[in-house]
Amino acid sequence: MATLSILAPCYNEEDSITLFYNEIVKLKDKIDGIELEFLFVDDGSTDNTYNKLVELSRQDPRVKYISFSRNFGKEAALFSGLRAVTGDCTVVLDVDLQHPPEKIIEMYQLWQEGYEIVEGIKTHRGKESIFHKMMSAVFYGMISRIIGIDMRNSSDFKLLDKTVVTQLAALKERDTFFRALSYWVGFRSISINYEVQDRIAGKTKWSFFSLFGYAVKNLISFSYAPLHLISIIGIIFLLIGIGFAIDAFISYLMGKAVGGYPTLVFLIILSSGGIMLSLGIVGIYIAKIYDQIKERPQYIIKNKKE
Question: CB count, 10 Å around CB of 207?
Fold first, then answer.
């Protein structure tokens, strides 16, 4: 009999946990020959999430939990869970039920057919602002070009075979990007479509600034594209400089006075801005290297039940 692990990161989801648990339990009767394992990861919640998990685990021995000492972020919660699940396959989904649990049945059937990764692809992004959708399209468009796979509507909603989970759990990098790494590891994969549902309770924890920071962090941690941008900036400045030089030479040959001061100020401001931008990009990568070589843990576990 196969064991299906349900991995659900939580941050201030006290109103959603029980509803989520009940929805997942209903699926067991629809899938033959399966045992369930629940693993909730409390990412340093400040509400009653932890107590809810303790109470639920006392009622059902299949429920396990990990609780962080503080909020370390969703990536840390996901990877701590991947290192703790024991199932033959694992489904990652959100506690707020924006990832529809009924899709787990289809995912599990595809896993039985031999697929090692089943990716959840959004056909509808739910209630997002136009600006949010636009920023998401830009970010995932860049990532898609970098890794050569269309990630524009990808999500954390996935089923992973135990072999894939083992490979992801073994990664030693501190700044991870789970959504892209599940593509990067390879293995036999397939995708299914789903529509993002409304939250069953509570409010989203993602503001515009947190989403923007998450996008920048993942772009830096997963690609060298910003470093390549420095070369592009250098080429642009070179072409501008050559253009001004040609203009000055032609003016000299024609006996015209060259108004150098405004041009000089423009070039200094432009080049200084480009240099500072380039130094900033390099500085971010150096900071990432610094964080990595310090070898601080990606997260700290305060309490757990395994």
Answer: 9
